[in-house]
Design a protein that fits this description.
Layout: E1 5-8, H1 18-27, E2 33-38, H2 50-56, E3 64-69, H3 74-83, E4 87-90, H4 98-107, E5 111-116, H5 123-126, E6 134-138, H6 153-167, E7 172-176, H7 183-190, E8 194-197, H8 199-203, H9 209-217
Parallel strand pairs: 1-8, 2-3, 3-4, 4-5, 5-6, 6-7, 7-8
Helix pairs in contact: 2-3
Length: about 220
């Protein structure tokens, strides 16, 4: 049985005590911390900048899984690398040259991820699958809250998993958007390795982080 990882999204944490919440996530069995970075341009929301990530870095030894929803992305990769990101994921639509962006992230000794929106085809990332550490599948449209899990992305996950097996590649498949105790099982069965979840981790079972993380990891 493969090991499922959970990357809680701190967008659902209490921003008045982010450092404390991150420590609690580590103690509760989280595998990494998911940081959503939105610029109000590539997506219609505005969130966390490098100074916040830098201030949080000392609160945990867990990897920071940073999802850059910003355009142009190359301009900011050094800032987020210096702030303490361990994994930097970007959208191919936000760069003129996906290969160059991958190389830029690697130049800072960071892991690389490519994110695919619900309407972005696998073909846009396929030639780069041997050069990245993860593919992040968005199962909602980024920047809009309260959306339901988009079932159509399951076929995309299965296709990526098939390519991975056929070509013996090692990238992980991550999913973000509407992930709860039901949709997580659907995603895992399709081939997902890493679950990004915010509301379910922080709100279910009266905020019992450990219980919620453990439940998400169960097949």
């Amino acid at each position: 049985m493969k090991k499922i990882q959970v990357s809680p999204s701190i967008l659902s944490a209490d921003f008045s005590k982010l450092g404390e919440d991150i420590k609690r996530l580590e103690q509760s069995g989280a595998d990494m911390i998911h940081v959503d970075v939105m610029d109000g341009h590539f997506v219609p929301n505005l969130t966390i900048g490098p100074p916040v990530i830098k201030s949080l870095r000392g609160h945990t030894k867990l990897p920071f899984d940073v999802h850059l929803m910003i355009d142009p992305v190359n301009k900011y990769i050094k800032d987020y690398s210096d702030a303490g990101a361990d994994i930097i994921t970007f959208h191919p639509e936000a760069t003129e040259d996906t290969s160059n962006t991958i190389k830029l992230i690697r130049s800072f000794n960071k892991k690389v991820g490519i994110s695919l929106n619900p309407n972005t085809e696998v073909a846009l990332a396929e030639e780069h699958l041997d050069k990245v550490d993860l593919i992040l599948i968005m199962s909602v449209y980024p920047g809009f809250g309260g959306q339901k899990f988009i079932d159509e992305v399951i076929s995309k996950i299965k296709k990526l998993d098939q390519i991975r097996k056929e070509k013996k590649l090692t990238f992980k498949i991550e999913i973000d958007g509407g992930i709860n105790f039901e949709t997580s099982k659907i995603a895992i069965n399709a081939g997902v390795d890493i679950l990004v979840s915010g509301t379910t981790v922080f709100k279910e079972n009266n905020g019992d982080l450990k219980k919620n993380i453990e439940t998400l990891k169960q097949m």
